[in-house]
Design brief:
With about 375 residues, the chain is mostly helical. The chain is rod-shaped.
């Protein structure tokens, strides 16, 4: 037993020595195969990691061994430890460096480039189809064959508004005529007053008579200018009401009527399709017609609501404006023909009306400096 154990001990001691000799021979062979390749000599620690002290020299040698044009910053180095299946393998992979960076984010697939000519042609086609449907609807209504959607209450308010607009325009024309005639009369009275004043100075025997008439005509001309200012203010306010406020509301009414015609036209198409057969060919048309009908119905409802709101606000604004202007017109006319100069001037102050003094528009030489 002792001899056996001694022999095994001798064999165990000789086996590491043989492995060391074999390892030394393999290392010398590797050194002979690549004596100048410094990149193959990678010092590692006991746990299979690279030593930090040799990292700089390793990168420098690897940079010299790379092909020309490939920088170290563009190369990814992967070194496997002893526990990896690829021992001593150095992998170089190209990655996005400082010269080229890939943008991360969702990938967007570009739609097909649309032809502008085809888009315009499609718009023209839709416009032509819509115009045809609306024209057919209008002709059918005039011939008494087609049905139309009617909101009785709203239609009555629109008719009253249009009738009132015509009457307000007539008042506006008459007031403008009165203003023109009053301006001519005031101008004539002023000239007549100057003529009387001149004769008062030249005719000693009729000095007082000409003087009285000159003062009267000048007073009438002054009061006429005051009345003219009140009438012109009345004209400007009514003109704004008729040609801006009411006209804006009627523009919305026209848009509402156009939306109503489109709604009835597409409603008629849908009703005709629903009365026909239902098969594979007609069902897609019915579905498309239903969608178009719904779109125009929503547009019609929106325009009807807009018209109702505008009519309500217009009525409130019209009453307020016309109340003030009618009071102004009445008080000014009454005070003028009554010869009450103070009441006439008080009326203008009440409505904050400032008369334009002749020559006041031209600035003085001091203001121009």
């Amino acid at each position: 037993m002792s001899e056996h154990s001694s022999e095994s001990t001798t064999l165990d001691e000789s086996h590491p020595a043989a492995e060391e000799v074999q390892s030394d021979s393999e290392e010398s062979a590797m050194a002979q195969e690549s004596p100048k390749n410094s990149a193959a000599e990678i010092p590692v620690t006991s746990n299979g990691q690279l030593e930090d002290s040799h990292e700089h020299s390793f990168n420098r040698d690897l940079k010299h061994s790379l092909p020309v044009g490939l920088g170290l910053s563009e190369t990814k180095i992967t070194c496997h430890g002893f526990d990896s299946t690829k021992e001593g393998v150095v992998e170089a992979e190209r990655f996005a460096g400082s010269r080229s960076q890939q943008k991360s984010g969702p990938v967007v697939l570009a739609d097909e480039v649309k032809n502008p000519a085809m888009e315009k042609l499609e718009l023209v086609r839709k416009w032509s189809l819509n115009t045809y449907k609306c024209t057919r609807q209008i002709i059918s209504e005039k011939l008494g064959r087609g049905s139309r959607t009617v909101d009785l209450e709203l239609e009555a308010q629109i008719d009253i508004l249009r009738d009132n607009k015509k009457k307000y325009e007539n008042i506006l024309r008459l007031a403008q005529t009165l203003s023109t005639q009053l301006f001519q009369m005031v101008h004539t009275q002023r000239q007549l007053g100057d003529a009387f004043a001149d004769l008062s100075l030249k005719s000693l025997e009729l000095h007082e008579e000409f003087g009285y008439n000159a003062d009267t005509q000048k007073l009438l001309a002054k009061n006429g200018e005051t009345l003219l200012g009140a009438i012109n203010f009345f004209i400007a306010s009514v003109n704004t009401l008729v040609n801006k406020t009411i006209e804006d509301t009627l523009l919305t009414v026209k848009q509402y009527e156009s939306a109503r015609i489109e709604y009835d036209a597409y409603r008629t198409d849908l009703e005709e399709l629903n009365l026909g057969p239902r098969d594979a060919n007609t069902l897609p048309k019915i579905e498309q017609s239903q969608q178009l009908f719904q779109v125009h119905k929503e547009k019609y409802d929106k325009m009807r609501n807009d018209v109702s709101i505008k009519l309500k606000f217009l009525e409130e604004n019209k009453v307020k404006v016309l109340h003030n202007q009618l009071v102004l017109f009445h008080n000014a006319i009454a005070a003028y023909f009554a010869g009450n100069q103070k009441q006439l001037e008080q009326t203008l102050k009440q409505f904050h009306i400032k008369l334009k003094i002749p020559g006041a528009d031209t600035p003085s030489w001091l203001e121009e400096q």
